[in-house]
Design goal:
Blueprint: H1 8-19, H2 25-38, H3 44-60, H4 67-80, H5 87-95, H6 97-105, H7 112-128, H8 134-147, H9 151-159, H10 170-183, H11 187-198, H12 209-221, H13 225-237, H14 246-257, H15 262-271, H16 275-278, H17 282-301, E1 308-309, E2 317-318, H18 319-341, H19 345-355, H20 396-409, H21 414-426, H22 441-458, H23 462-478, H24 482-498, H25 527-553, H26 559-580, H27 586-602, H28 606-622, H29 626-643, H30 649-662, H31 666-680, H32 685-688, H33 690-703, H34 707-723, H35 727-743, H36 747-758, H37 761-764, H38 770-786, H39 790-804, H40 811-827, H41 831-847, H42 851-869, H43 874-893, H44 903-917, H45 921-935, H46 945-962, H47 966-983, H48 990-1002
Antiparallel strand pairs: 1-2
Amino acid sequence: MTTAPQNTDELYQALQENDRRPYGRARTVTAEELVDAAEQFAEPVPLVHALFELQEAYTYGSEPRKSPVVFARLLTLFDEQPDVFDERRRHTLFWRFKWVANALRVLPEIPLASLRQWLTEMRDRYEKAGLGLQPYYGQAYQLAAHIGEGTTLAYELWAGRSRTRLSDCEACEICERALYHLAAGDDERALTAWEPVLAGTESCQEEPARSVSYALLPLLRAGRADRARELHLAGYRNCRRNPSMAGEVGRHLEFCALTGNETRGLELLAENRNLFGEVDSPLDLFDFLTGVEVLLQRVELLGHGELPAAGYAGRSWTVAGLRAEVRGRADDLAARFDARNGTTAHTDRRRTRLDRAPLVDALELTLRTRGLDELTPAAPVAAPPARTAVAVPDSLPELILRARELDVQGHPDAKACWAKLRTLVAAGDYIHPDDPAVGPLAQLRADLLGDEASLAGDRDEFAEAAALQEEAAVLYDDAGLPGHAAVARACALLAAAEAPAGTPGTPVGTTAEAPAEAPAGTSAEAPTEGDAAEAKAAALGAAHASMVRLHEETAGLAPHQEARLLRLRATALGMRLQNSGNEEHVAPVLAEADLLHALATRHDLGGQISRALLIRATTHALSGDLPTAVTGIDGLLDRLRTHGPAWYLPHTLALRGRIHLALQDARTARADLAEGLRLAADWPADVAETARLHSDLAEACMHLGSPDEALRHLTRSAELQLRGGSRTDAYCSYSNAAQLCLDLGRVEDCIALLDSLLIEPDVTAGEVDDRLVAQLRLTRARALHAGEDLKVAAAELVALAAESAGWEDDPGSHAMIAAEAAVLLGESAEFGRAREAVDQALAAHARAPRYEQLSNCLRELARLQAEQQGPDGLPDALALLAEAGRIADEARAAEYEARGRSLDTALAYEHGRVNAYAGEYEDALAALEKALALLGEPGAEEDHAGEWAECVRLAGAVEGIYLERPAAALPRLAAAVSRLNALGHTEETEPLTALAARLRDEE
């Protein structure tokens, strides 16, 4: 709070503002300051309101020790000045007797006698006030359940009584009944009792999050795993990082541990690390720590006790170390509660949870299926050997010679040999063999640098790859190997040509299928994109020319070295063609491929023959000659199946699949890609391009109408890219998967996936491209909105809008984000903040037009304001529509065409709705008739029959109901029904027929 309220009006405004804040330390501190401010005024009523707010902040901010102190002040005020408490404040006071009972129960230092004394005080106060005692018996039952004694009688005394106005809400009482049945071992009866809460029929501040956390394991035991999964995803989101729901978080961790989702459990534990230090309720902490221990115990039993784990602040923890710490603290809490209560209930409950065996082997909770092995903090390991792998020799000279032989062949097993050699050479006691066949140490070091350069190139670190190859070339020269040096320098030339900065990223919120809008007469792409492609094509052409000179100037090349140089030359020209798209660049690539093919055939270099054929086919595909490309690929596949090398097959099938996708033959493409994926299992994932195969299969599945299968392939591709170190590609793939999830209506899957990505260490450390992270956050905000979590979605979009305001190179994305934020703020009835967001969007739109998005935003915001505020909101709503009209004028002048209905038509329709909400029915009808004129009557093949029918319906409703002119409205509706029936749009007639029937009934 910046300044203290100077009068009671300012105090009440500050209390309202604080009430909108999330529970937590910031809200609590402000509530404390407001109590101090209220004490300065002579009026007791403002102080009562401030104390109520403070007690609520303590209660839901997990500070139970302070809640009874505040309530004692309120009770004293009530006793001394009962007239201060009107009916509403009196109701609140008596309701919060239960809050104090709950607060005292969770504190083991409060004697049991004091708990019972408070319940007696509550009963006496209720009786004196003439209030029903069902709430008192509810608290008595909860104390009995907590202690673990006398629960049956206490339950019957409570559950058999009629509810009163001061009873706990239906959702909370349902949970207590269900927990009673659960404690009695009757899962089915508990789940039946819980159903209204789990189905969302009954809810409150704590529900359904509390019930969900308890129902997860009973659902599993009842064989309802899918329902448990669904509730876990939604329920966890509603309690994460919340100190007052630490126990619920603990039960979600336990659920992960018992369903084979230990990796997700550790991920959620990291997300909730704050709870180790922010939970002031000993009972909530006990429940949380026990859930944490169940998870850590399971991870340690699986042999991963040395994995890092998120725990208490101030030090790093392993799973085993944190488990020992948690066990000691939780045991102590259990002992304190049992000592206070005179029973062993808490120790027994804790032991029951820790002794539970996993309920299912593996339940796929999220789209990211990872094992604990993938979290092990160790150096990268080589991919497991293929079924056809050659054993790595133990003898050092044999190992060196074998690595070089496999490298010449391009065999995937060369990587394992180089990896072993790199470890041996790096050792302090390494002694190089004195063997002429092996060559000097300089040659081996150059070989290893070349392999490192290859790995750097796989990570798109081309500048590093070029430097490593140049260093290798110098060592080869020192070793007297000019042919090797020439190949290394050619590799360096190619890597250096790939190093120039790439094209700008796609604007946030857009896709290749839906490009961002651009001013008329300009490309939707940034002007620098073509320049960058041209520069890269020129660099590749120059690299090729240098390779040719290098080739010509190097004498004594072995056939395999000459073939390697020819292949590099062809690759440089092929990449130039890919960047330029210039038809004149096709023939040079084919010429180089022919030279390579002739040389390889002459010297019987089977792998290079296949490479030459692959370059030919790829070049035909790049040039647009797809039939010739398919013919070439078919011939290559026949050769590979007969003569090998077999490790080329997955890549070749992948290319054939992509060509068939381009030919719009998705079925054949899927068959090719599936076979490629099957064969890829024989080879390391990076060699077989397994991630790319999954990605292409996802595209084929989408074309074939199998989006769920596409989603599986997309997420598999992303995870493989992540494991392979291609993290940017992985996040892009996951972003596409999240959007597909959202499109499929799998909202919770989408949110869980994005939550998991956004807590990745490189994301939280700011090491991932900020625009890519923004896209992930934007999709998450949209998913939260779709999941009806409006408050969180709006907060995320507002934060994104603030960050994107600094994107000087991409004002269009800022305009789009600010526009979406404005609409969500409007849905939250925060129209002042919505107007500020609109102004940001309009300013960015002036620099990078987003006609349709801004028009949609302004119209929707106007509708929301008129709908929520009625006549009072009409002036502001009309001002927003005037802005939308200006946008439509700009779009018309720029010859921009909207993707759906025209902006003018949409605007006229919205004028109709806004005026109708505000009670200006004549203006509404005139606007709707204008919209109908702009739409034009539908035809048999046109796709706006539904829009037209809705416009007719609204006009009929305004005219017939609100203007009370049914005689004029009925002919309009009859004519529209006749028109639609004649065109075959029978479904669109149903609302019109229903409205006409209503009007006739009211005549």
